[in-house]
């Protein structure tokens, strides 16, 4: 059976998308395909040289692309606030059709963000929680807007620990990664509940790329100088992984396909590993209303970002 492909993306003309981590991997592929189909795309990235290179590559592939780089460092809440303020002052800043919370880090050595959070939890969850909250008024003002958070099958490695969100008791890189990806799904679950309660038509959904060849797999080993582990990850990318273009399809489906429902989770068809987008397995703890509520409250406290627009 033929699966959904990028050729089925509906016309995106007149729509504006923000894609975090759009300079490489699935973020780049998603941004390019949205631009190819007429969207204005903001490349929200930390590295200016890499983002400008990505912008040039997109323009080379899609000559009429409407793309713009805006700096965003999810490991620094001051940068997140600055991005949201600049977005509001920019062209079309009164609306936002699509926010793709894609940027992430995986299995890093223990590090802290500028605000003192464990790096994986801080970037993968808290940075995106703050960004979404700060951009929420634009999303609510835009008919049929969507928020898509990119999680991972590795969320099944671990539930969150509400008593130790920053892994201060004991740091284990893969457990911390799994917890951050569980946090992504709990965030979508709770955001969908709150949007429904507020009577909003904004759709909050999640996706994951399966095993896609990106620099995510090698970054942690490279940071520590573990050359053998880096070479092993590179070999795995070559032999087993699907391309980043294929890995971006679940995200693009969740972002653009008609009929995507709130709190859905889309991933590759073949064992969650590769293939066309389909509904994905998710651990039962990612649908826990109480855990979602408690994580939300903790996230508001840690980031200082409230979702007042949903409390009215």
From TrEMBL:
Keywords: Oxidoreductase. Pfam families: adh_short. It comes from the Bacteria. Residues 15-163 form the Ketoreductase domain. The keyword Transferase does not apply. NCBIfam families: PRK06197.1. Belongs to the short-chain dehydrogenases/reductases (SDR) family. PANTHER family: PHOSPHATIDYLINOSITOL-GLYCAN BIOSYNTHESIS CLASS F PROTEIN, PHOSPHATIDYLINOSITOL-GLYCAN BIOSYNTHESIS CLASS F PROTEIN-RELATED. This is Oxidoreductase. It comes from Streptomyces pathocidini.
């Amino acid at each position: 059976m033929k699966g959904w492909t990028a050729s089925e993306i509906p016309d995106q003309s007149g729509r504006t998308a923000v894609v975090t981590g759009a300079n490489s991997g699935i973020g780049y592929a998603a941004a390019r395909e949205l631009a190819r189909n007429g969207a204005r795309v903001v490349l929200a990235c930390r590295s200016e040289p890499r983002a400008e290179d990505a912008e040039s590559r997109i323009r080379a592939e899609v000559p009429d692309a409407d793309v713009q780089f805006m700096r965003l460092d999810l490991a620094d809440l001051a940068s997140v606030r600055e991005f949201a303020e600049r977005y509001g002052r920019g062209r079309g800043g009164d609306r936002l059709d699509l926010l793709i919370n894609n940027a992430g880090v995986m299995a890093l050595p223990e590090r802290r963000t500028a605000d003192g959070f464990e790096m994986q939890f801080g970037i993968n969850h808290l940075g995106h929680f703050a960004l979404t909250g700060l951009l929420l008024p634009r999303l609510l003002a835009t008919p049929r807007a969507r928020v898509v958070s990119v999680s991972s099958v590795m969320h099944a490695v671990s539930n969150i620990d509400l008593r130790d969100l920053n892994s201060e008791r004991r740091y284990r890189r893969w457990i911390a990664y799994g917890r951050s990806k569980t946090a992504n799904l709990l965030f979508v679950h709770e955001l969908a509940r709150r949007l429904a309660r507020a009577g909003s038509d904004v759709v909050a959904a999640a996706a994951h790329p399966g095993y896609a060849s990106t620099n995510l797999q090698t970054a942690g080993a490279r940071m520590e100088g573990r050359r053998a582990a880096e070479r092993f990850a590179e070999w795995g990318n070559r032999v087993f992984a699907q391309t980043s273009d294929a890995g971006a399809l679940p995200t693009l489906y969740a972002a653009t396909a008609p009929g995507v429902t709130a709190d859905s989770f889309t991933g590759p068809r073949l064992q969650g590993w590769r293939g066309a987008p389909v509904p994905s397995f998710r651990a039962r703890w990612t649908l826990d209303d109480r855990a979602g509520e408690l994580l939300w409250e903790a996230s508001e406290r840690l980031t200082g970002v409230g979702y007042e627009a949903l409390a009215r």
